[in-house]
Amino acid sequence: MRHEAFHIRRAVLMVNWKYDELVLVGDAVSRNGGRGVRASSAEAQALSELLQRGQLHPNQSLPDDFRSPSSIQRKSYDIQTADPRYRGTPTRGGRLDPIIAEAFRADPAGMRAKAEAIREVLLAGEVLPAGDVADTDHEADEGGIIEYLARRRERDRGLRDRKITSVRASGGLIACEVCGFDFGAFYGERGTGYIEIHHKRPLHVTGRVTTRLDDLALLCANCHRMCHKGRWITPDALSDLISGRA
Description:
Number of domains: 2
Order of helices and strands: HHHHHHHHHEHEHH
Shape: elongated
Strand content: under 5%
Largest sheet: 2 strands, antiparallel
Distance between the termini: 67 Å
């Protein structure tokens, strides 16, 4: 009975790995030549200290051994062995481990930049509010604190209003800069003046910067979603994609 109770308690205290945490572990693996990092290494120790702050798990009860150096080691080997180039027997990791491994294989520089941005905002004390980046499909796996900060800035009412006022003052249309969709023209009075605001360069590329109006683009909901879906692309790149299909 005691043995069974122990396993029940362990199951209750298990905390799932967030995408942002896995990016940081994947970065450690990448910088270690694609190999897992030992618990005794400086990298595992430093990453453990950062993640133990719990900023990515707000309002959760965290066990005493939460994100210990040993857990960093185990997860790093999960990511190493999830790489399709690994020829040994893979460990039993989570469903996001292959996604992280493939992302670092396909775009190591971009993923390292994303890891640096995540590390920077965590060190600055940012906290991911519980449920703020919830979504209804698989893309929620690629949310996290960077996505939250970008959306928070995009939704800043004053910033949005200033951008729209600036476009109007220059004689521009309040319409999608990629596909030209005009909510007012299509929906009438209900859609007049409506548009979504998007950062042309995301936080994992720019780091923490002061946003200027020129850094923002007006996008319809569909084009906005396509810019954020999977690997991030710019509005200009999305325009080229649409033009290539014409």
